[in-house]
Amino acid sequence: MEKTKPSAPPIQLVMDDNYSSKIELAYNGSREDMGPYVPANHRPMESNTSSFGALAHLLKASLGSGVLAMPLAFKNAGLLVGCIGTMLIGLICGHVIHILVKTSQQLCVEVKKPALGYADTCEIVFQNGPKPIRKFASIARELVDWSLAVTHMGACCVYVVVIAESFRQVSVEYGGPDWSVTAYCALTLIVLVPLTQINKLKYLVPFSAVANFVWLVSICISIYYCLRDTPDISERNMATSIDGIPTFISTSLFAMEGIGVVMPIENEMLKPQQFLGCPGVLNIAMSAVVVLYGFVGFTGYLQFGDDVRGSLTLNLPRDEVLAQTAKLLVACVMLLSFALIFYVPVDIAWRRIQDRIPAKTHRWAMSGLRLFGTLFIVGLACAVPKLELFMELVGAVCLSVLGLLLPSVIEIIWRWGRDIGPTHWIVWKNLAICLFAIIAMVSGVTFAIKSMLENL
């Protein structure tokens, strides 16, 4: 008598996004009977960002203000510990992004959806995990969404403050108005308001390409000053006390972690299969990030020592035209990059209100939301007391959860009972990453709050 082939467990899918639906799929027998499902073939026509465009977006998201903060991170760790730590954190971040995207792509095939965002992936994985954790699916989604929103709004605030301080330094040096940083923050609205009205990633590709070029020029100028008349290496610390490590980790996570824009970029790709693999968009981007971050952090701390600021360009000489040019170029890069980072919180907010607004007014409502968001972020940036401490706090709280903890957890849940069990090495590897994330978050928040209190 022929044995009946057992059916796979049903995949429950409840979503609320651009591909909204409520589906229950139960696979009986072989999936090949229905033919293979290729998510990329079912994506909307608007999802046509090239692999080059995706690489430009990912590099721009990871190489914004972050690379300029690395000398500050090295100050808290020392030259030797900073180099080793940068490589380790880069490896961990790249690996965690890889498992998040891979899980999402596998899930798209299972539930037959063209694309899934970060929050969608977490929610569906929890819905189909072991029974005791299924009730936490909606909580996981909300945690991801609001953490992403807060993280990217924080990054946008940092951008505005750096832009304002850069223009103010140049203005004061050359006899311009000596206004407060708050006034210069307000002036950024002249550019940010029209720029943030762009609501499709593919239209941001030209801005990313231009920003990458301008950024490269400004970083080369900054590196020139870092390498000019460098002090003896013995004058800098090879390692600092253990108290500096949490701050190093928080600042490095803030600088290096671009996980918030990973899924939107992958979801808009014409050939998403080229995002992972070797070489792949992700591997190229993360390799460039680690090398450049380590080099800038090392040379920046070597040159400026304990006087380094949250943005390297703010340490450049104020009486040299070339140095002032670098400050202006970095400010321009951040203006262009603002729209890409701003894409994430706007998308999260729009998904929660679009069903309450008549369809015929969606276009005006989206424009209003983007205008309000821009005004809110610029207003918040005016109230940021200290750039360095703000970066540490955002990195410690939001990016420890988003960039390390949640992707590791969802891989365990997704693969549990499929190809891994309690003793599998992947489980222990992910638990180690989770432990590292929790330690980084708790210690980072503790030291950031302590520093804030000392500066009151």
Spatial separation of the terminal alpha carbons: 80 Å
Helix content: 55-70%
Number of helices: 15
Overall shape: it is globular
Give the rounded overall mean pLDDT: 80
Q: Could you tell me the radius of gyration in angstroms? A: 23 Å
Instruction: Specify the CATH homologous superfamily.
Output: Amino acid/polyamine transporter I
Report on this structure.
By secondary structure, the protein is mainly alpha-helical. It has one domain: Amino acid/polyamine transporter I. 66% of the residues lie in helices and 2% in strands. It contains 15 helices and two strands. The chain has helices at 51-62, 66-77, 79-111, 118-127, 137-173, 181-187, 189-195, 205-227, 244-256, 259-267, 281-304, 321-353, 362-382, 387-415, 425-454, and strands spanning 11-14, 22-25. α2 (66-77) runs antiparallel to α9, α3 crosses α14 and α8 packs parallel to α11. It is globular. Residues 1-9 and 14-33 have low confidence and may be disordered.
Task: Indicate the topology.
Elements: E1 11-14, E2 22-25, H1 51-62, H2 66-77, H3 79-111, H4 118-127, H5 137-173, H6 181-187, H7 189-195, H8 205-227, H9 244-256, H10 259-267, H11 281-304, H12 321-353, H13 362-382, H14 387-415, H15 425-454
Antiparallel strand pairs: 1-2
Keywords: Membrane, Transmembrane, Transmembrane helix
Main location: membrane
InterPro entries: AA_transpt_TM
